[in-house]
From TrEMBL:
The keyword Manganese does not apply. Its EC number is 1.3.98.3. Belongs to the anaerobic coproporphyrinogen-III oxidase family. GO terms for biological process: protoporphyrinogen IX biosynthetic process. It comes from the Bacteria. The keyword Cytoplasm applies. Keywords: 4Fe-4S, Cytoplasm, Iron, Iron-sulfur, Metal-binding, Oxidoreductase, Porphyrin biosynthesis, S-adenosyl-L-methionine. Its cofactor is [4Fe-4S] cluster. GO terms for cellular component: cytoplasm. This is Coproporphyrinogen-III oxidase. S-adenosyl-L-methionine 1 binds at residues 52, 109, 142, 326.
Amino acid sequence: MKQELLDKYNVPVPRYTSYPPANYFHDGFTSRDYADAIRESNHQQPESVSFYFHIPFCQRLCHYCGCNSYAAPKPEIIDRYVAALHKEIDLILPLLDKKRKVSQIHYGGGTPTFLPALELKELNAHVSDTFELIENPEKAIECHPGWMTGQDWEKLATAGFNRFSIGIQDFNKQVLQTVHRQAPLLQPEEIVTILRSCGVRINMDFLYGLPHQTEASFAETIEKAVSLKPDRLVTFSYAHVPWAFPRQKVLEKTGLPSGDEKSRMFEAARKILCEADYQPIGLDHFVRKDDELYTALLNGQLHRNFQGYCTRRTTGQVYAFGVTGISQLGTAYAQNTKDIMEYIEKVEAGILPVAKGYLLSREEQITREAIEMLMCNYRIDWNELSEQLSVPARSIKQATAYDEACLREFAEDGLVEFDENQIRMTPEGRLFVRNVAASLDKLMLGTNKSFSKPV
């Protein structure tokens, strides 16, 4: 990667896990608005339902974490929180059309595996007893291997989960110690053997841009990961945003890799993974050729939500439960309060615990589809979007901040190729797909919001 390109484009831009990004949500959006949005979502696409459960508890907090998490709270708080999750399911039950089917259940955190497998199993059972599920829905859980025994992994598999995202982050012990993350309790080979015997799918998550990481050390980590043959492998770029998460500030004492160093880490990892026949998906995912995400990419059926990339079969409008959970509906976003006691007390009182949200205009809905197509497929086909949205291609461009002069500059720098019908990211430009997406975002014109850098 040329240094001048890094200097020019490694500037703060949204991650676009949602459009508009979450820092545009506002407290003028109320619980009543969310209830109305749920009712309206019954008549919007996609018809299927995706449930997200936020488990904010951790044995201890990692310094890099950008999630809403609590270190080992009192047992009575945990019990009330789990009970509130069950009650929140019951609160939205009357608002959802019973004919709609659940296609995806995802547990994130925090550390979802902080809870005993039995409690997670009971939450899954509550969903399956209350709603109809599609055949073989995805039931995914994010796991911290630092605290899990062989029995723990087996119990989770019997709790109904069929996809495990193992948060390795790095195999280098010095890196893990510096960021205050517990190393895996079992050898990674043991974990994979146990999970394979249970017949579940395995993701491994890694983070680059942490103290003490180098191009060589991260390449060694990825080579070890490849030898374990996970179904999917994710290389997240560490987002250093200490103004939002002050705990990250401590990492500056050790020093963080530069943008150029992070770029080389990613490119080295990508080379190793592609040579091992993993296929790149979007920003940071790599999958085997027999993975449904790769098939979805080839067929133009790839989607993205707050849980990551998914297929048209499993994607659904997202209904989130727990503190800070973000529901992602056809025309609205709703985010629950981040205060755990406020969350518990509101739900116990029978009130949807919404703190803020956003109602999308028709123009913003169109922009969301354009940006999602770019982020998922590294291209935008205006005619394809026109057919999908039943809106003329010219009107779609007008809804976005489409600027031919801006695209020409991207093209001159080797990031994109474009014509009247398409925008296509070049292989060299993919690292900066967020920048190109931001160029289509009218909200970015004169924004004063804070974002992380692409690299």
